[in-house]
């Protein structure tokens, strides 16, 4: 008889054995520790029998909802359904052969809750753990923009035994080891995980968040909840949050080191899907991209990177990155081009200890790679922080000269200082300085690089007049292309708490536009369809 799997990963899109995809990493780290890992990908989730395909796992099911929250993947910021999903084959959000409809979506809304419910229908008494951005950002009571309401912890709504916060590789191995030694998931006290307990842990090592019922009564407490979660992160403490007569307890996140990343990224990845030789748009984009580091030193209010990867940077060694490049060359589609080398923002590579190095380690890394005979080109496709580029003009010049495609992408995010300061972004004058430097470098290049700027419309604090001059301002600064997106009040963000409360962290009232018609009009004034 075939031996049962220890752990079965379940995900609402095709499994990708690639280090830019969470399921690829998790499966490989577990296998490296000797666990047998099964995969149920893209199940027809409406039918519980789909979750019996591989039998019952010896230890637990692990739901991997992917790198993006399912509500963000399934809905536009103004609540319209999306028909595309970059992580599905052909980018089609619906099962092939089924007419488009909510039940035919490969990725169900609030995937973790739906998949957990269906697994429980198939296996009454099975243990379930979930992770990913969707779980991480919904561990505490949070706002769901599609439903426009506060929801309680995902641990309760999905009846999870354990939730993983952050990227999760260290946690999943600890969980599997403890489960193999007989510890029930609900009794584990593993750093970077959360559980639902009848009693709260009591000492000073814990920071209490406003309770779920208190937030329901007074939604502006989401701001306090955000502040306390960040304080807990900085002080290395856990959090507890009352939900009725239960407590959601989150253990402090484990530190990840450069050695951890080297080990994780140097496992063997085939850079393919499990069950198809064709590729999803997400795999096509990432096929030969390399993650050089995690985390970000930025404090942008609308960004989930700090909450999910950490507010400091952890980088891989250059040797580990080169090993990955060499490994990649065994892929049948390799043509000598690294399509991206970076992290949340590329140039922060190596700024683990020192946020102000005289010579940015990223510059050295780029030079090392482009001087190799086996690499034709290294692109920097991740955005770069323009304020850091002002500190490192030599790096900017080398990126423009050797590593840019048609565009260099930057994210000023807005053009009005009032809104920029609420977003936690540098002022417009800094962006103006950057644009001057950019065009000065451009004048010395044989091939001109164009500037693509990303802006967010409708962030809390923005009124019509803040957007009125945006298009002209960007044009006058020499921006060649504008990518504008309407603000998404995603779960767990500071900006979302401001959106709900209508005020900032200091209690100052902010205008908040919630009308999709007005938001569309603002966006079209910057970025006509
Ligand atoms: S700089 Fe980019 S990655 Fe960093 S916090 Fe801001 S938006 Fe997020």
CATH architecture of the domain at 7-195: 3-Layer(aba) Sandwich
Our Rg estimate from Cα atoms comes to 23 Å
What structural category do the secondary elements indicate?
alpha/beta
Continuous helix count: 21
- Please report the first level of CATH classification, the CATH class of the domain at 7-195: Alpha Beta
**Average pLDDT:** 95
Helix residue percentage: 25-40%
In short:
With 529 residues, the protein is an alpha/beta fold. Among the domains are: 7-195, Rossmann fold (3-Layer(aba) Sandwich), CATH 3.40.50; 406-529, Transcription Regulator spoIIAA.
Describe the structure.
Among the domains are: 7-195, Rossmann fold, CATH 3.40.50; 406-529, Transcription Regulator spoIIAA. β6 (142-144) and β7 form a beta hairpin. The model has no long low-confidence stretch (mean pLDDT 95). The protein is 34% helix and 16% strand. It is globular and about 70 Å long. It contains 21 helices and 22 strands. α13 packs parallel to α15. The chain is of the alpha/beta class and 529 residues long. A nine-stranded mixed beta sheet has the order 3-1-4-5-8-9-12-11-10, with helices on both faces. Strands 20-21-22 form a three-stranded parallel beta sheet. The protein binds iron/sulfur cluster.
């Amino acid at each position: 008889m075939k031996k049962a799997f220890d752990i079965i990963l379940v995900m609402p899109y095709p499994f990708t054995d690639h280090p830019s995809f969470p399921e690829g990493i998790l499966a490989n780290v577990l296998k490296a520790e000797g666990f047998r890992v099964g995969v149920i990908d893209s199940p027809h989730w409406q039918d519980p029998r789909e979750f019996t395909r591989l039998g019952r796992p010896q230890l637990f099911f692990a739901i991997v909802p992917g790198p993006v929250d399912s509500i963000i993947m399934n809905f536009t910021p103004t609540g319209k359904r999306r028909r595309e999903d970059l992580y599905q084959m052909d980018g089609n959000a619906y099962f092939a052969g089924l007419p488009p409809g909510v039940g035919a979506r490969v990725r169900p809304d609030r995937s973790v809750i739906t998949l957990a419910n269906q697994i429980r229908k198939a296996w009454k008494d099975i243990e379930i753990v979930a992770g990913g951005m969707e779980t991480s950002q919904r561990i505490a009571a949070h706002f769901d923009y599609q439903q426009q309401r506060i929801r309680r912890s995902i641990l309760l709504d999905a009846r999870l035994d354990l939730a993983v916060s952050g990227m999760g590789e260290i946690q999943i191995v600890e969980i599997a080891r403890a489960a193999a030694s007989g510890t029930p998931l609900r009794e584990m006290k593993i750093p970077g995980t959360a559980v639902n307990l009848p009693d709260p842990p009591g000492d000073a090592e814990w920071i209490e968040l406003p309770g779920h019922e208190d937030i329901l009564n007074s939604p502006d407490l989401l701001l306090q909840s955000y502040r306390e979660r960040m304080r807990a992160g900085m002080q290395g403490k856990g959090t507890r949050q009352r939900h009725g007569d239960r407590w959601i307890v989150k253990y402090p996140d484990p530190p990840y080191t450069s050695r951890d990343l080297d080990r994780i990224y140097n496992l063997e990845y085939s850079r393919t899907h499990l069950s198809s030789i064709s590729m999803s748009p997400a795999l096509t984009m990432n096929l030969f991209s390399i993650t050089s580091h995690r985390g970000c030193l930025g404090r942008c209010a609308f960004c989930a990177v700090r909450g999910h990867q950490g507010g400091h940077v952890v980088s891989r060694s250059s040797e580990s990155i080169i090993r990955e490049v060499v490994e990649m060359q065994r892929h049948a589609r390799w043509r000598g081009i690294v399509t991206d080398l970076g992290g949340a923002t590329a140039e922060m590579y190596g700024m683990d200890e020192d946020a102000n190095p005289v010579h940015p380690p990223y510059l050295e890394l780029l030079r090392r790679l482009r001087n190799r005979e086996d690499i034709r080109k290294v692109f920097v496709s991740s955005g770069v922080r323009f304020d850091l580029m002002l500190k490192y003009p030599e790096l900017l010049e080398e990126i423009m000269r050797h590593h840019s495609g048609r565009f260099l992408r930057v994210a000023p995010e807005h053009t009005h200082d009032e809104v920029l300061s609420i977003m936690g972004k540098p002022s417009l004058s800094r962006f103006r300085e950057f644009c001057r430097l950019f065009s000065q470098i451009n004048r010395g290049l044989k091939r001109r690089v164009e500037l693509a700027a990303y802006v967010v419309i409708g962030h809390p604090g923005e009124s019509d007049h803040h957007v009125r001059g945006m298009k002209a301002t960007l044009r006058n600064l020499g921006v060649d292309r504008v990518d504008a997106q309407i603000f998404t009040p995603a779960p767990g963000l500071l900006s979302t708490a401001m959106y709900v409360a209508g005020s900032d962290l200091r209690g100052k009232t902010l205008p908040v536009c919630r009308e999709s018609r007005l938001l569309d009009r603002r966006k079209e004034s910057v970025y006509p369809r």
